[in-house]
From TrEMBL:
Keyword terms of this UniProt record: Hydrolase, Protease, Serine protease
Superkingdom to which the source organism belongs: Eukaryota
Family annotation (Pfam families): Peptidase_S41
Official protein name in the record: Carboxyl-terminal-processing peptidase 2, chloroplastic
SUPFAM superfamilies documented for this protein: ClpP/crotonase (SSF52096)
Gene that encodes it: CTPA2_3
Gene Ontology molecular functions: serine-type peptidase activity
Family annotation (InterPro entries): ClpP/crotonase-like_dom_sf, Peptidase_S41A, Tail-specific_protease
Natural source organism: Vitis vinifera
Domain Tail specific protease: 8-145
Amino acid sequence: MGISGVVSRTLEMYLAHIAFFLNFTLEDKGQAVFRLEKGVIVYICDGRGIRDIYDTDGSSVVAASEPLAVLVNKGTASASEILAGALKDNKRAVLFGEPTFGKGKIQSVFELSDGSGLAVTVARYETPAHIDIDKVGIAPDHPLPTPFPKDAEGFCGCLMDPTSACYLNRVQLFSR
């Protein structure tokens, strides 16, 4: 099931339970079409400090007032890890799952005269809260036991079941 199917199924399940929120997964380098409210997405830093700031203008395909739950794991890396950090630090989403991969370095590869290459770290990523995620990743707000449900129905069922380890009641979700 693609991300649109996951979101669609999740909305159906939660509308039926009168607890509306969006869910998508950034597991294993998942991709999602989503924009943040106006704010910082990521800082690019080098030895002298902040080199670049990437932010958003606030246009959004999902209303900023709608609660959002995001499932992450050790395979959440690259752009999906940056998005997870931006969502968490901007208090836009609640993260569930495992710590993310922890790829926070930016490298350039230089070709040498013998055809080999040399990878040099030229900068690092920092989340909007200035957290360097390299080798540590982003900790979820709610760690889930392993294994945990990875399909939309299982994950949403887990969130709705007050006896489950990943239960999140409406008050917790809407307080973000």
